[in-house]
């Protein structure tokens, strides 16, 4: 069963790479579209982003404010200017598609509304044309349905897509959950053009860089039962071997190198810091670069964003508060909300436990997040407590609290805000007092002063452009922490044992299973592997970093992986844990 579910902190916002071109020589463009494109050329190549914004329609302006657009222009477009030529490729669903030449090749998508305003105008990395292949009859049948579904997604018609799903798909993904999944996909619309690659076991596989689209398992009623959109596996191997401090003198060294080397030698992956606790000893391995082209190997003390691994810290704070008698896991959240918010009947049955184990009924994030985005690299920077309380006032429950697992940044962010209210301390103060100070984690923080802190890993986005550390206000308890492999391994080891009795008791409580439906098994924050109830883990991802912490409670093994780009770094942690578990102990 293939489904597309996000488990990372950040859903990359719609990439708005609008730009202009010095000359337009399309083969068969609609003249009006061509004229608008030429005008966009003039405005962007003459540093007039505000003038171009005036060409967009109301629907575009609803999603992207003028402030966001100007920020995007400065950060995402100016580095590519000047762009030189555009070549018309094709027209699909009223969208004109061009190849753009410049510093790097790009694909440009343009469409107009009925009034001749820009409705779509964005860039993506250009992918070389894949030679057409002959589809079998069954592949053609799947392809027709796949393109119909993609068209509906681009129109944001989630319910219409669900009507085309088969019984097997619906058995695993109900309508409410699908709508939450679809909302995450809508951040990525309009989707890149789907190029058929191959078919495996009745599932068509397409290139939609930077994603791969897997679709099919068509049943006798013509309904689909497989749907997935994982990152596109760019397996291009670097010509130069990445640097590493792995001495390759032990069996463990070789096992680690086999897993990480495959990742770091893949084009686009920048750096990795790994920490391993095995047979009572700590080991650290580093690969690649702290900064692309800088030739500086990261080390055990290099600072990275850890993203959603922060949620395990927040859940540990909850466990501490429970053990101190400040509340129970079953305490309703309305007890600590302002009266004007608590009177919303949709909130009355939600408990603290359900915030920590993602069964509260809250979606991934509130609907009003996008309206507060000024910098697309910092989607949560300007979202404050007032914004969250406003969202809570208007929240409408669509499922019974405690009945279904739906990963939610919102829930854990709210948990952190209420813990601040209970303790009358800020989130960074609570983390320091109850977790990082007892564990001597001196390189773990909620904000990094890059002018004073030199040993940092620079993050890189999906276009391999540099991005900053994540900044957050109301959402910081869901993903703001930055740390090193050295500190994070201390944290991972604490999941096995720690000399601090209060922290040990809280960790034990955080590991207790609070939800298990056969598909998801979770404690407080931590998720259990489906096939191994001794293995807990959590991934993290921001706009420029990925991370993973995995702990085998039975074999006493801990693995930490920190990376400074957003490909598949979290999967490295999972694969490395499996490889170490398979070693003869």
TrEMBL record:
Q: Where is the signal peptide?
A: 1-24
Which PANTHER family does this one have?
BETA-LACTAMASE-RELATED, D-ALANYL-D-ALANINE-CARBOXYPEPTIDASE/ENDOPEPTIDASE AMPH
Name of the protein described by the UniProt record: CubicO group peptidase (Beta-lactamase class C family)
Query: Which keywords does this Swiss-Prot/TrEMBL entry list?
Result: Signal
The UniProt record lists the Beta-lactamase-related domain at: 256-570
User: InterPro entries given for it?
Assistant: AmpC-like (IPR050491), Beta-lactam-related (IPR001466), Beta-lactam/transpept-like (IPR012338)
